[in-house]
Specification:
Blueprint (H helix, E strand, L loop, with lengths): L13 H5 L3 H28 L10 H25 L10 H20 L1 H16 L3 E5 L5 E5 L15 H7 L13 H15 L3 E2 H11 L13 E4 L2 E4 L6 H19 L3 H8 L13 H4 L5 H7 L4 H7 L7 H8 L3 H19 L3
């Protein structure tokens, strides 16, 4: 997948690079992004992150994926403008390949940040697959990574899906992982050998990571520590109200952790949640965050992406109703409700075992 060096620039970029006026340049750029780049970006993200990419789908993962698409578009636009104005010496000889690389990198950054343990496991697997003569790792025809025994190298056909971790343990007792067992290279090598023998053909690297991660019981998300806080359909409430000083300090720490988790939600999720944040009696509680020293007004404005002056003007209007939030975000009222429900579900999922 070559996209830089001494090769000639992809002819699909000619109209944009040679446009004489800013207006013509913008038209060609919009066409490049919408007609050439976006179909590739969407296909890769839909496959890599297993999401619908439907704007009406308010699930946390889907909304994050939509934001990744926006980030990739911004990166592509910036890179192409630098290329046109000569501030970047890169030669893009394969625009489709270049778009794919940018998109894959965006997905990898997202997965590395969201699933650090899984990412470390993936790096261990990559190392074994590329340093042992009996294993192989190669790129498939569509840019995805395949792996297996070295005699299968460069085969693109995946013969059958892998067994689940549970099925693998039932049919191959030798790979049963003991609780707390460290991921040692020798042990991992034995597991891969059994997995590949069971597959009897090339497998997707991502699929392999999923099975091995399940064998080692690696969680797919970082859990929050705010076990005292519940986010439900009515708003925010505290469990175990008490005047005990130690518990009060503990609750404040838990609320701080919850605030951190809210801050990491996608923009539309956190906006739908915070702009309508109410307690069990329906009263607005966002104004209590500065009083409780959980977050300052400046911090709240920042994660809601409001200029501080504008946010100060609406501070006393909060909480907003769903119609006001919908108008602010450019969404329908139902989409706002879906986003808030998804955000609460995400937080509950993080908190349920703690």
């Amino acid at each position: 997948m070559k996209f830089q060096g001494t090769h000639e620039t992809d002819t699909s970029l000619a109209g944009f690079l040679e446009a004489a006026t800013e207006s013509d340049s913008d038209c060609f750029l919009a066409e490049l992004i919408s007609a050439y780049a976006l179909p590739i970006v969407r296909k890769i993200i839909r496959s890599k992150l297993r999401v619908t990419l439907d704007p009406a789908d308010g699930s946390y993962e889907n909304q994050e994926a939509l934001e990744i698409i926006s980030d990739v578009q911004t990166t592509l636009v910036d890179e192409l403008r630098r290329l046109k104005h000569g501030s970047d010496r890169k030669v893009i000889s394969d625009f489709s390949g270049y778009v794919a690389v940018v998109t894959y990198h965006a997905c990898y950054r997202y997965l590395r940040r969201k699933y650090p343990e899984r990412w470390r496991l993936k790096n261990k697997l990559r190392y074994l697959l590329t340093h042992r003569q009996d294993f192989a790792l190669w790129q498939g025809d569509e840019g995805d990574w395949c792996c297996g025994l070295s005699v299968w190298r460069n085969q693109s056909e995946k013969r059958k899906p892998l067994l689940s971790a549970q099925e693998m343990q039932e049919t191959h007792p030798s790979i049963v992982i003991q609780p707390g067992e460290a991921i040692q290279p020798g042990r991992l090598t034995n597991v891969l050998t059994v997995v590949f023998q069971a597959a009897d053909g090339p497998v997707s690297l991502d699929e392999l990571v999923n099975v091995v991660a399940d064998l080692w019981l690696i969680k797919s998300a970082t859990a929050a520590t705010a076990k005292q806080v519940i986010i439900d359909d009515r708003g925010a409430s505290l469990v175990d109200q008490t005047v005990d000083v130690a518990k009060a300090v503990e609750q404040r720490i838990h609320l701080k952790e919850l605030w951190r988790e809210i801050s990491e939600l996608p923009f539309r999720h956190r906006s739908a949640l915070l702009l309508n944040l109410r307690d069990a009696q329906g009263r607005g509680v966002i104004t209590l965050l500065p009083i409780a020293r959980i977050a300052t007004i400046q911090q709240i404005a920042r994660i809601l992406e409001f200029p501080l002056g504008d946010f100060a003007k609406i501070w006393k209007e909060l909480p907003w109703d769903d119609n006001a939030i919908a108008a602010h975000l450019g969404l329908t009222r139902q989409q706002v409700i879906n986003l808030r429900h998804s955000a609460r579900g995400r937080l509950l999922k993080l908190l349920k075992d703690y």
